[in-house]
């Protein structure tokens, strides 16, 4: 079931990205298909430290408005009374990216859904600000999930990051640190360091991801971007 759902989702994404946008010049689309050695989200493994398949698609308007979808295989989650749960995560987001006071902002609403899971879908509201100086980009962000059907209390996650993508190095570098407290974690800190290299439409990366509430590990990925 996992591979069937993933294949269906990927096919939908590829069909959407190949649609003729010539008559909608104000729209752009980008996406990809990715194989990862471990699906890590905010420091924790959602694939039981096993490989996962992922796909994503983002369609953006020249105004800064955008919509996106993300799919990944996961460890079974949200089991029902019979012990069956979701084996695929499907996330949807709509937002607006804009510039103000010399900074780049991104404000969105995201829905995390788990087809086949029981009582686990939830909505989160992320906002991010960033500043680019030459090859360096610094960013800070905050995501808030209010108390809702799937959450017995609210959840808060804040993060900061620093990225380098310049000609001085053959790879792009990224560092992240985050802090989470609420329904999903009790004052958890997570962090990651990664390096990536792009060849045309292919991108490979290696990351070390860890947290103070779960063991760290090396995550390798290979993506086909379009």
Architecture overview:
The protein has 226 residues and is mostly beta strands. The protein has 1 helix and 14 strands. 7% of the residues lie in helices and 62% in strands. It has a 12-stranded antiparallel barrel. Strands 2-3 form a two-stranded antiparallel sheet. The longest helix is centred in the N-terminal third of the chain and has 16 residues, at 2-17. It is globular, with a radius of gyration of 18 Å.
Could you write a compact summary of the structure shown?
The chain is mostly beta strands. The chain is 7% helix and 62% strand. The chain is built from one helix and 14 strands; from the N terminus they run H-E-E-E-E-E-E-E-E-E-E-E-E-E-E.
Secondary-structure map with pairings?
Elements: H1 2-17, E1 27-36, E2 40-41, E3 44-45, E4 52-61, E5 65-77, E6 86-100, E7 103-113, E8 122-133, E9 136-145, E10 155-164, E11 172-182, E12 188-199, E13 202-211, E14 214-225
Antiparallel strand pairs: 1-4, 1-14, 2-3, 4-5, 5-6, 6-7, 7-8, 8-9, 9-10, 10-11, 11-12, 12-13, 13-14
Please state the structural category. mainly beta
The first-to-last residue Cα distance is: 27 Å
Strand order of the largest sheet: 1-4-5-6-7-8-9-10-11-12-13-14
Contiguous runs where pLDDT drops below 50 for at least 5 residues: none
SSE arrangement, N to C:
HEEEEEEEEEEEEEE
Task: Give the helix level as a range of percent.
Answer: under 10%
Number of helices: 1
Q: Radius of gyration over alpha carbons?
A: 18 Å
Shape: globular
Mean pLDDT: 92
Biggest sheet, in brief? 12 strands, antiparallel, barrel
The total count of strands amounts to 14
Strand content: over 45%
């Amino acid at each position: 079931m996992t591979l069937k759902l993933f294949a269906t989702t990927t096919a939908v994404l590829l069909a959407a990205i190949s649609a003729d946008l010539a008559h909608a010049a104000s729209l752009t689309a980008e996406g990809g298909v990715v194989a990862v050695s471990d699906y890590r989200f905010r420091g924790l493994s959602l694939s039981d430290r096993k490989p996962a398949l992922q796909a994503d698609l983002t369609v953006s308007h020249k105004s800064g408005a955008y919509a996106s979808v993300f799919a990944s295989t996961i460890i079974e989650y949200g089991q029902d009374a019979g012990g069956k749960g979701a084996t695929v995560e499907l996330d949807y987001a709509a937002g607006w990216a804009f510039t103000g006071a010399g900074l780049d902002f991104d404000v969105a609403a995201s829905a995390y859904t788990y087809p086949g899971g029981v009582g686990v879908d939830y909505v989160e509201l992320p906002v991010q600000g960033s500043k680019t100086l030459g090859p360096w980009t610094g960013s800070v962000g905050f995501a808030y999930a209010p108390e809702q059907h799937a959450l017995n209390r609210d959840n808060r996650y804040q993060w900061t990051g620093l990225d380098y993508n310049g000609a001085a190095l053959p790879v792009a570098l990224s560092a992240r640190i985050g802090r989470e407290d609420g329904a999903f974690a009790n004052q958890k800190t997570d962090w990651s360091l990664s390096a990536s290299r792009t060849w045309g439409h292919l991108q490979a990366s290696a990351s070390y991801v860890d947290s103070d509430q779960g063991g760290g590990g090396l995550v390798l990925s290979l993506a086909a971007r379009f």
